[in-house]
Prior knowledge:
Layout (H helix, E strand, L loop, with lengths): L1 H25 L1 H21 L2 H23 L2 H14 L1 H20 L1
Amino acid sequence: xxxxxxxxxxxxxxxxxxxxxxxxxxxxxxxxxxxxxxxxxxxxxxxxxxxxxxxxxxxxxxxxxxxxxxxxxxxxxxxxxxxxxxxxxxxxxxxxxxxxxxxxxxxxxxx
Length: 111
């Protein structure tokens, strides 16, 4: 009975994962467009910034452009695998990046 329950859970999670991956694949173009738009906004802000702020913004723009290219050229499974590996190998930079993106997003959404 327990083995059957485990098998059903495994099947359900696999089917759910497949549906999520399909949804992501269907919306790749929207995501790429949004990332490129955000990168362009940061690029514009970088032109008005100086010093460390400009360096951070330029770095974020480069990262967003590379990420957008990766999404466009890779499969959803590849992206998930790469993200898991990055977080495992570099949790500090990952969380620092999340915080930085949050501050930048709040700043631009406020304006």
